[in-house]
Amino acid sequence: MYSEWASLQDEIQCDKANQSVLHKFPTPVGTTVATSVVRHIAVSLSITANSQEPCQLDSDKEVKWAMEVLCYGLGLPLTELDTIKECVNVYCNWLTACMPPSPNQPPIPPPIRDDPDPYIQDMIHHLLNLFVPRPGSDVDSVRKQAVFCHRVLRQIQAIAKESTILSRESWETLLKFLLAANDSLLSPPLEKDDAGMSSYDIGDQLCERVLSVLFEIWLLTCHKCFPSPSLWKTFRGMCISWRHHESLVVQWHKVNQALTAHVLSFTQGPDYPKLTLADDEAQLIPTAMTYDCIAQCWFRFLHIIQNPVDLCRPEIIGKTHKFMQAAMNSDTLIDPTQHECLQKLPVIFYKAMKGVSVMVNAFLGIPQTQNKYDEQLISSSSSNSKLTMPPTPPGQRKSSRPMSVFSSSNKGSSKPANTSVAVPKSNTPMMSSLIFYEPRQSLAPTRPKCDSILHLFGAWLFDAALARVKFHNCHRIVPDQGSIHSDRRSSSLTDSRRNSVTMDYHSDSALVCDNTYEMGRAEALGTLCRIFCAHKTGETILPVYYSRFYLAMYYGLQTSEEYLSGQVLASVLFNSCDILRVDLDGVLMLLPHILDAIQLVLNDLPNKYKSETNSTIEFRNVDLQKACINLLLTTLCLPLHFKDLTIRDIVSSTDTEVQLITFISLKKKIIDLIIGALRISSDSTNTQMLLGGLMLLVEDMAVCEAAEQTTFQPHDISQESENQVFSDNSQSSLKTSSSESSFKEGSYHRLGHQASDTDSAHGLFGEAVTLICHRLLSQWKTDLNSALAAMEILAGLAKLVISPPNLLMCKCTVKWICEFIVQQCNRPAPAHSKDLHSTIVAAFRCLSLWLVEHSRLLYDKECLHVVLEVVELGISGSKSQKSEIQSVLLKDTKIAPSVQKLERSKSVPSILYKTFSVRFAKQTSFESNRASDPPKYKQDKQRQPASKRVQEAAEGLLTCIIQHVGAFPPPCGPESLFSLLDEKSLLKYTKGNSCLPEHGSPFRYYVLENAIVVGLLEQPLGNIEDLLPTVTALIRGPFGRHAWVMQLRHSPRIKRGSSKSHLSDPDRPMPVENVGTHHSVKPRNFPESVDKVTATKAEKSIPTLESLVTDEKCPELNKLKSFIEKQDQFESQIGQKKQQEVKSMPFPNQDTECKPPKITEEFQAARLFLSHYGFLSLEALKEQSNTSLPPSLVTLDTTNPGLTNDLEMLDTITARDNDTVHVFYVKSGQRLAQDILRNVGSQRGIQGQFLEFLHSLGWPVDVQKHAGWTGHISTSWKISQPEDIQENAPRVGTGGSIYDGQQQVLYWADVSSEVAFIVPSLDNFHRLQNDGDKSPQLSVSTPSEGPGGTKPTTLSLERPLTEPRNKTMESPSSPHDAPAFRTRRFGRPSAVTIGPDTKIFVVWLENFEDHENFPTGDLLPMTSTGLEQYTATSSSSMRQDKDIFLIYIHALQNGLFRIHMEGNTGKISMAIPLVDGMVVSRRTLGSMVRQTAINIGRRKRLESDSYQPPHVRRKIKIQEIVDKYHLKMTESEFYTALFQDVHK
C-alpha cells in the first residue's frame, strides 16, 4: 500500500528537536538554571501563589531562550517534580494561543500570541521530554509524571478539536509527537527489577491513554488535514513494535468498529442493521467527515497493525529492536521470544480476532452485543496479576486438557513458583468460559457476497484458523529460503489476498498441537463458519476459498487427543449449524468429521464428565448440545438420499491409503447419535429437537423401504408369534396376562443389546417407541413441552406403515400411554395444574389414534381391559378395581421386595418396574379396596375426575372406541364422521314425496338426557315395502349426527321370499274325512249313583207344581205345557233342517269361519320407539326437584321455525378439530403480495417439486360436493344437493391455483383432525378487492347472553353448560329470530367455533433469503376462514404476531429441502416433528409439514383458555336448543300428544 513511500520512523526516533542548549552543560548547571528561570516564568503568568514582578518576554529571541530552558526542565529527573510541573503549566497555557480566546485566558508572550504556529511546533517537540521514562524512579514520582502527561494529552486534544489556525506542518508535528511518545513508552518490553517494580511503569500507566489520543487525533487530522502516505507508513511500521500491548489491539478494534459502522451506513443504506457502538466509540469519528475520507481511513486503519495473525507468533513479535536490546542487556534472557511480557499474546491474539469477528458480523448484518465472557476476560486480564505461568513457552506448549471448554475441572495442572503473568492458562476455568453460545441471528438480506468479505479478511482468518496446528504430512509444505513469513507481513493488500490461499505452516513433524492460542483460533474459525454459512442461494465462492476453509474445518473438527482443541471445536459447532443447508460446494466431505465431533459432545463427554454438576458448565453444555443437535438435524436424510455415493477423504494423497466412506455406511452412526443423545438429554428444547429428528429418521426409513419393497424379517420375533397374539376370534382372546412374549420383546432392556435392529424401519420403530415411552414415564412427565412433543411423535409413529407390523410393540405402547395417564392422574393434588392436565388430554388423544390405526389391539382382552380402565379413571377419577401392580405393592410396605416380586411376574413390562417403585415409594396410602374385592359399579361411584378437561378427553376416547375403532374411515369417506343424511335429504325419499319443510316438519323432536336430540320420522321411506312399524331417526349427539331406519319385526328376515308372507293369514288346516267312531253320549249333570240315594224329607220340602195348582188354574197349566211341546217340536225341526243345510254346504263356511284381524298399516312408530327403548316413563317426564336440569325426556316445539336453523347450526359444529394451511410460492426476489399470488396461476416457472409437494399434503376435493372442512366456514360441513351444484370447467395447467378454495382444495383428515390446504391465487385477491370480505355474518349470542361463550380457566370440575333457570323463558310458540347471515356461495348457516385463531402459512422459497421480506401482513386478508370474528382476536388490527406461524421450505441443490420456522410460541413451544433448520427428504416433506401444522393447531388449542372440544360445544348447543324450544307439558298432555298424528 505504501511501498513507494519512505517511512519517517528513523527521522522521528533520531529527531533532536527536543534537545536544549542546556543539555551541553553539566547536569547540576542545567538543573539550577532551569529551576530558577522556570519559577520566574511561572510567577509572571500568575500561576504560583507568591506573586512577584512578572517576567517580560516581548521578543522572539527572549521567548526562544525561555523555551530552551523549559525544554530542559521537562526532561529533569523526577526528583524535580515541582519544576517539571511548572514547565508543564507554562507550556499548557502557551499552547492556548492557537485556540479561540477565552475571558480567563492567562497572559501569553506577544510573539507567541501574534504568530503561534512556529512556537506551537517547538513546544510540541519539547513536550516529548516529559514522556521519556525515568529509570529508577519511585512509584509516587512515576504516578505524578503520569498525571503531568495526562494534562498535556488533554491540552493537545483540546487544540486538535478547537484550533482553526494550525498549519499542515503543525498537524504533522502533532502526529509525529504522538508517534514518538507512543514509541518511547510502548516499544520496550515490560521488565521487572529486583524490587518487583517495573522500570517502565510509566508505559503501563499511560499505554491505553496515549494510544487513544493518538488514534483520536489521527482521525481528526484525517478530517482537517489528511496525513501524507509517509506518515501512514510510519504509523503502520511503528505499530509493529507496540503489538505486545493489549491496549493497542483494543484501541484498534474501537476505531475499526466506529469506522465500519459509518462505512456500512453509506454503502449499505440506512435500513441495514446498525452496528452498536459505545459512547466513546461513537464520538471518535468527526461528524463532518466525508464519505471518501471515512472509506480511506477505514481501509488504512484496518491494516495499521499489519497482519494480526502475527500475534500468535512470538518469534515475530519478539524480534523488534527493543526486544533484541533487552535480551542483550539481560543476564537471564537469551531468546527475546521468551520474554515474560509475551505471555499476554494469547489474549491479545484473541482480542484481535474478536475485532475482526465484529467487523465481519457487521458486514453480514448480525447485531453485535457485548459478550459477558468478554467482560470476564477483560476484567480478569486487568485484575489478575499473580496467575501461574506455564513452565514451557507458548509456542512449545500443549494444553493439558484439550476439552476444558466442556468442563470446569482443572486437575493435574502444574504451578511452578516464581513465575507470574496476567493471563490465565487455556485450561483454567475462566478460559473455559470464553465460548458462549449466542442464538443464531438472522442475516441481512442485502449483505455482501462471501467472496467480498473473504477478500478483506480471508487472509487473516484462514491463517488464524490454523495457527499453531500440527499438520498431516500431505498438508505440510516446507518453505524455501524466501520465507513466506516476510511476504505475509507485506504491506500490500494484493500480497495479503494472494497469501490467503498460500500454505505456510510449521514443517517440524515433531511439533505437537499447541492449544495456547486456541481462543483466537476458535474465534477466527467461528468467523469463517459464519461467513460461509451466510452463503446466498445461487452465490458462487472461489474454489480456493473452499479448499482453505475445508482444510481449516478438518483440523478444527478433530476429536483425537493429538489434535483436539476444545475451544476450536466448540466454536466450530456453535457457528456452523447452517453449513450443510446452504448449498456449499463439496461440503459433504466434512460429514464424517462433523459426526465424530457431534458424537464427542452428545455421547462421549456427558458420560466422561457426568459427575460434574457446576451449573454454569451445565448451561454451557446444554447450549453446545443444542448446536450439535441443530447440526445433526441437517444430516439425517443424507445416507438414504445419497446411499452408496463415496465421500472424498480430505487427507488423502498419493502416498496415503485412501479411506472409502459411503453415505449409507454413516446411517447407523447417525441413528446411534440421535438415540444416544435422546437417552441422556435433560434440556426440554434439545429433547424436542431430538424427537423431531427421530420421527424424521423413522418415517424416512419406512417410506424408503416401502418404495424399494424391502421387508425386514426380525430375528428376535417370529411372525407366527405376532399372528398368534392378535388372532382373536369372537369366542375368546389370547390370555396374555401370563404370556412371557407380551412384553419381553418390547421392553427397554433391548436398547443397546441388539444394535442391528435399528438398521431397518421395523427395528428403529421399536427402539424409538420404547425409548420415548421410557423417558416419558421416568423424566418427561413433569415437563409440559417434552411430554407434548413425545405424544406428537407417538401419534406420528402410530400412522407409519411398518413392514412387517410390530404388533407386540404397538400393544406395549398402548399400555405405556395408559400408564402415563394413570401416573399423571394419581399425582398429588398440589401438582395438578393446567399444564399437567394438558399432558393428560394429549395422551388421551394419542391413545385414540393408536387404537384407530391399530384396531386389532382391542381384540386382546388385556389391552382392552387396560384401555377401558384408563377411560374409567379419566371420567370418574378412580378405578373400580385395583390393578395387579397396586395390589402387589399393597401387601408389603417395603418397595424393593415388591418390585422383585413384580420382576418375577412375567405379565408386567420390565420398563415399569422402576417407575412403579418410585411412584409407590412416595405414595404409601391407597384406597381401601383391593384387587380381590368386588368391583365398584359405575352407578355407585362418585365422579371426581382430575378436571373437566380430562373427563371430556376420556369421553372422547370412549366414543372413539365405540364408534370409530375398526370402522374408520366410514363408508362415506374420511371427510365426514357424520351421516350425510339430514331432514331435507330424507324427506325427498318418503313415500309420496309430498313432505316439504314449508308445510310443517313431519319430524317429532325429542331430547334425551339433555344431551341427545332425536328426530323421528314415522312415515316410511320409499324403498321400504314392508308394512311394518318403521321409524327413521336422526340422532344428534355430542359426537355427531347419525341416521337410523328401524322396523319393529316379529319374525326373522329371510334371504329369499317376501317378508310380507310372515304377517299374512296362514288359514286353517283342511278337514280330515276319517274322524273316527262317533259316540252319542248324553251328558249328565250328576253321577248315576245319585239316583240310588234314598230321598229325604228335606228334598220334599219344596212342593211340586201339580200339588200347588188348583182346579181353576189347571187349564192354564195344560195350555202352557202344550205351548212348550209345540216349541220344542218346532226347534227340533229347525235344528234338523239346519244340520242338513250345513252338511250340504262346502267346508269351511265363509260366514261362520273365525279369521284374524286385518294387519294395521299405520303405526305410531315414535311412541313405540320411545317405549321399547325405555325412554318413555312417568319418571322421565317429571321435572327434577333439586336441579335446574330439564327432564330426561323433552319434547321440542316443531312449530317454531327457528328450530330448523338451530339444528343446522348444530350440524356445522363438527366432531373433529379443523385447521387451515395456506400455501404460497415465492419466486426469487419477490416482495409484493400480488406477485406472489400470481405465481401459482400458471405451471410455467414453477418448480416441479412444488406441485409434487402439494399433492403429498392431501387429496383434491370439490368444494361444492365436499362434506368436510374446506378452509372457509361458508362452504364447509354441508350436504350437497343436486340443485346447489354448479358445474364449472376445472382449470388446467395451473401452478396450484386450482386449490384456492373456489373450486377445489387439498384435504386430509383422520379420526381427530381435518386439514384444508389452500393455495391463494390472484383471483382471490381481485375478488377481495371488488366484493370485500364475504365471510358469513352470523347473529349469535355473546358470551354473556348464553352458555358456552367462555371456558373457565380454573380447574373446577363444574362447567356452566346451561343457562340459569331463572332467566325468562320464551313461550314455545313465540317466533325466534333465525341467524341472519350471508354466505360466499351456498348459504349454509354455521355455528361459532370458540378457540384460538391460528394462521399457518407454508411458504415455498426459490431463494431462501426472501423469507426476510415475506409480506405476511399483506397476505393475511387472503387467509380468511370466516372464524376470525368469533375469536378473541377477531379483527385484523387486534391480531398479534403470535397467532401466525410460518413454515418456509427451500429446495436445496442436492435434492433435499431446508426448513425454516417462524412464530412466537409463548409458554408452549413450537410443535414438532419439523424443527427450524431441519433438512428433510423429498419422500417425507409433505407428511412432516402436515403433521407439524396439525400439531401447531393442537398446541395452540391446549394453550388457549377459550377453546372447548367439539363434543363439548355440541353439547352446549344442544342445551341451548332445549332452553329455546322446550315444549313444557304435563304427563297427560305428553301421552295425549303421542297418540296424535303429526302433519303429513
Question: Kindly, what is the distance between the CA atoms of the first and last residues, rounded to a whole number of angstroms?
Answer: 104 Å
- Pick out the low-confidence regions: 47-52, 194-200, 370-437, 478-511, 610-619, 715-756, 885-929, 1333-1393, 1433-1438
The secondary-structure class comes to: mainly alpha
Q: Can you give the helix content as a percent range?
A: 40-55%
Global geometry: elongated
Nearest-integer average pLDDT: 76
Instruction: Tell me the β content.
Output: 5-15%
* Sheet with most strands: 8 strands, mixed
How many whole angstroms does the radius of gyration measure?
Answer: 49 Å
Q: How many helix segments?
A: 53
Strand order of the largest sheet: 11-12-13-10-14-15-16-17
Tell me the total number of β-strands: 17
Summarize the structure in words:
The protein is mostly helical and 1544 residues long. The chain is 43% helix and 6% strand. It has an eight-stranded mixed sheet with strand order 11-12-13-10-14-15-16-17, sandwiched between helices. Strands 8-7-6-5-9 form a five-stranded antiparallel sheet. Helix 9 runs parallel beside helix 11 and helix 33 runs parallel beside helix 35. It is elongated. About 18% of the residues have low confidence.
